[in-house]
Queue: 2 jobs
Job 1
Amino acid sequence: MIVGVPREIKEGENRVGLTPAGARGLTADGHQVLVETGAGEQSGLADDEYVAHGAEIVDSADEVFERADMLVKVKEPQPSEYDKLRADQVLFTYLHLASEPDVTRILLERNVAAVAYETVERPDGSLPLLTPMSEVAGKMATQVGAELLLAHRGGRGILMGGVPGVPPADVVILGCGMVGTNAAKLAAGMGAHVTILDINHDRLRYLAEVMHGNVITVYSDEHTIHRAAGYADLLIGAVLIAGARAPTLVTGDMVRDMKTRSVIMDVAVDQGGCVETIRPTTHAEPTYIVHDVVHYGVPNMPAGVPRTSTYALCNATIPYVRKIATLGLDRAAEEDGAICKGINVRNGEIVHPAVAKAFEAR
Ligand SMILES: NC(=O)c1ccc[n+]([C@@H]2O[C@H](COP(=O)([O-])OP(=O)(O)OC[C@H]3O[C@@H](n4cnc5c(N)ncnc54)[C@H](O)[C@@H]3O)[C@@H](O)[C@H]2O)c1
């Protein structure tokens, strides 16, 4: 198969769909790899490295789209890429089609075989191609939140770990899934007081077992959320209800009751956010103030650390890319149920039930 890797063109996106190591694996399997010149630059990956690992560098996205049997990307196709997609071409990338009706329509019209990273699902229900980005976003939430607590960044002017004789910051995390757990581990490591809330007893039990001392677990309900928000220096929103909009857990009134210049990082903003006063922001202008509380609502946090995120993503995607390239999409889907669940659009039809439901509802 010819595997093509175009440069990502979505605003603020700095990751790339394949590392040189991925190119090496594919060429060792007997495939050809085309990489658009400069595709890896923002992730610190030079054209030369791809060439050294067996890839061919091509000058334009047009050539990648025209020659590739399978496109390996990071984000959904952008309008200027729509016309370049070919019938039966396999497209393997994040798609989020439930909230992208225009992209869905184009994939149907152009008869693309679209496989979405976010719906590749193992039999135990885990989402192996979503997890690495949640790990990145969770750690970033604490790291960036600590920075936003600095006085010159608009925050309360408080050090996460405190110093002897002066208490540390209070970090409150809503949701102890992938994002929340990673945020909690980093915050605890920095010496903050961490409160983590969830409705899932198994998750709370796991966190209570693996974390010690400065992390407390609390069952999440309106009362406990209001109370914890009231003492938070840094509040991190990390809840998810699969396939649905995030629930509004922190109301505008609760935000009004928060400490002056405390910080809200709503990582769940990509699903609508769990804080009533949150709205999507960008890496260029990440924050704004409401009720004297700093709000951060960047929906594509991993793009801020492309050198980490590209490797984290590709470490997870490459085995699937190699399987699809070697067996072809149909046989790969027959042999691997996770790939089968990843297929969203095939032969001009929406084949993923949740995507079909969202599309019909529009
Ligand atoms: N902004 C970004 O760049 C970015 C990056 C990665 C993930 N995300 C988003 O972060 C969110 C969390 O992702 P995840 O991978 O950690 O999901 P996850 O499924 O691993 O964890 C979500 C947790 O939320 C809990 N939850 C549900 N309802 C709750 C409630 N009422 N109170 C408290 N907890 C509740 C669940 O029990 C679960 O433990 C998602 O919306 C995801 O899309 C955003």
Job 2
Amino acid sequence: MSEPSTAGSEPSSAAVDGPAQTQEAAALVRDEEIWFSDGNVVLEAQGRVFRVYQGLLSRDSEVFRDLFTIPQPSSEETYDGCAVVHLMDHPEELRHLLRVIFDGKRYYHSNHQLDFSIVAALVRLSNKYQVDYVRDIYLSRMTSCFCTDLKTWDAVRSKHGSSVMNFSDKDAIAAVNIVRLTGASSMLPSAMYLCCQLDTELLLQGSPRLDGTLECLSLQDLAACINARSSLVRVAISSSLDVLDPSKPSLQCDNMRCRRTVESMRRRILDGGSPARGLAPSDVLISEVPNIRNAQRLHFTGSDLCQNCGDVLCSAEQCRRNQFWEGLPKHLSVGIAIPADWPHAQNPPSSSYVSSI
Ligand SMILES: [Zn+2]
């Protein structure tokens, strides 16, 4: 990540209220929102200038405090009578951080759902400038989605967000990178799992950020992701076939239509995936429960399941998904210890993901 630079370190820097004014300085754009007329320092980011309070920034950020104490050159650059500090950040992202510091609770109310891009920018910049309370608040928004609990994961994934943050699948790439940046390792299994479901081209090319740069996985994480995809496909098929095994004692049913239905579901998986999994063969967490319940409802069509067989299969399917989730960190081989708050982290499940029904 780029480091901040002080006034005078960039060729575009110049005072606008003195004889040294240049065309470059005149081209600076004053931010309409983050501009306090009695502010005492001007931050410049890619040509946009923000007038803020040095003391407040110094109070919240050791990095800004150090930045402001760096001795200025004799020909100190000013704008509107204030010292100018140049930053390498994207102005939109910097504005988010300044909003929180100077207008915090009023601007981003704790009950408002924010886009992932805003939360990610706030986490990245607050981590860079060591504004710890902002980093912690917005990391907790991230963990409301990239979570350790399967029930929560099912809910946020189906709605593409929690009550405080929305996201799309491609945001998983940035989520993994934020884990690597901040050490918030509890997010890693779900974020890496979602990366494994991304289109290969997107995974390799990266997902665009606000500033147009591409967010890419590190080579190490990319390799882990590619390796995990093939093993996820194997787990998805083998664990589903184990659930849909008509020879299991719990499925010993006198109704031949039940057996035919289970065998038909099993054949669909062997033939290339169930209707539920469709084009996402590595998405082990896609549930067959809706299909099973649907077969239960088709009681008079000749392609159905009795109440007992449907219930047994649904229970086995939920068990299969729970066991897979518990083993997810180990299965992804993401190069970290299992997060302490992961289900059964102190007592890892056996290597088998399949259930006995
Ligand atoms: Zn039956």
